[in-house]
Structures are given as C-alpha cells and as structure tokens.
Amino acid sequence: MMSDQFLRPDVVSSLTPLPPADRGRQVSESLAAYIQQAELAAGDRLPAERELMAALGVGRSTIREVIRQFQALGVMETRKGSGTYLVKPITSATIHMPLSVNMGSLRDALLQTLEVRRGIECEACMAAARRRTQDDILYISAALEEMERVHLQKGTAGKEDLAFHLAIYDATHNPLFRQLLEQMREAFESFWDTPFDRPDFARRSFPYHRTLFNAIVAQDTEAARRETIKILDIVEEDIKEMSK
C-alpha cells in the first residue's frame, strides 16, 4: 500500500491547471489519468484536497463533488481524519455506469433488480458455456463444491453462492458481466446475509446450481439458460412469498 510519504510527487506535478470549462468532468478525467500514471492500487491513498486544488487550479467544492461522484460509483472511499482512498483501480479509459435503486420498498427493489438480472444473468451463463476454458471449469467446480459443503452443513450458503456465480461471470471473459451483476448483488449485501430473516430463502434452487455447472461443462448454452431461469424463478417466488 502506498504510504502518505510516498504520494509520487513527480506524478502529482504532472497535473496542470484546467481551463474554466466543465470543471467537474475535467477533474474526473485528470484524477483517473493520475491514478493510472501513479499506478495506484485498491487501498492506496489519493493526494489531499489541498494538493488537488493547487495542482488543478480548482476550488474545494469542485474537488469534493468529483470525490462524491467517485464514491457513488464505488471507486473511492473517504475515511474520517485519514483521507480518500482508492477502492477499485481505474484508468482514463474506464467507463462508469452507476446503478440507482429506490430502497423505499425492499420487495419492489428486489423484484425490479431481479427482472433486469434475469436477462443479463441468462446471457452470462450462456456466454460462460460457450467460452469456458479448462481453468474456468476447475475454478467454478471448486466454488460449487464449497457452496455445497457449506449448504449441507448450515442449510444456507449466501457468500459461497455468490462466489459460485462470480466464477461463472468470470468464465464469460467479458468483465462487464461481473461488474454489472456484482453491483446489483452488492446493493443488497446486508439483505443476502439473512433474506427476510429466513435461512431457507431460495433453498429450493440449491440442486439447480449443480445442473447449471453441468450445462456449462457440456457447453450446452440452452441448458445453461434453462437452469439459470429455474434458479431465478425460485428467487422471485420466495421474494414474493416471504415479503407478504
């Protein structure tokens, strides 16, 4: 991790004052370029507000607004009394697509998210079936076996279930699948720990994870789509039933 004493002043000095036009966008682009040039990784500290203000020739409000935008995207986090830190590495070529869900009604938000997930997740599993490598199969298999072990031991396996699906998204070899679907799941991280205070939430979908894996191994895209739908149908039924 980069310490406060090693903020790469040689790289910070490459930041130059900006012309008076669309300052927010320009600051975002300059910060992304700086992160790339300085080779910052997740957990590294960014320069202090006053350093960014002086380097870019903008006011504190502009810097703070840009930091808030990056925080909303899950790219940065500010720790009180410590500074702003990078959560995910970015470059000047990174495209940000924030998701916004109204959490006024957990039930409605979950069903809305599930409706979108259905199409993306089916396509992801079909892509994984088409493109999976032998290494992908080993990775997914290990995640599935751990999920099955924990599920049989505890009757539920939320984190392990997530790891299994993330392994499938990685097997698509298209990073957008993982980014989009992971964002949707992260939005309900606390929910997935104990859904509706029911440890049996979506338990009926447990056997279909193995048949989904088998379809991906066989490179049977239609079977992969079919087994994914079975899992999501059960999730939808349980959301509706358990939220009454």
Describe this structure in words.
By secondary structure, the chain is mainly α. The chain contains eleven helices and two strands. A two-stranded antiparallel ribbon has the order 1-2. The model has no long low-confidence stretch (mean pLDDT 82). It holds the Pfam family GntR. Residues 21-89 form the HTH gntR-type domain.
Q: What keyword list fits this structure?
A:
single chain; 244 residues; mainly alpha; two-stranded antiparallel ribbon; 11 helices; elongated; transcription; transcription regulation; Tscrpt_reg_HTH_GntR
β-strand amount = under 5%
First-last Cα distance: 47 Å
Number of helices: 11
Report the helical percentage: 55-70%
Pfam family, one: FCD
Protein name: FadR family transcriptional regulator
Domain HTH gntR-type: 21-89
Keywords: DNA-binding, Plasmid, Transcription, Transcription regulation
Helices and strands, with pairings:
Elements lengths: L8 H4 L10 H15 L11 H8 L3 H13 L3 E4 L3 E4 L19 H26 L2 H21 L3 H14 L3 H12 L2 H5 L12 H12 L3 H22 L2
Antiparallel strand pairs: 1-2
Characterize this entry briefly.
The chain is mainly alpha-helical and 244 residues long.
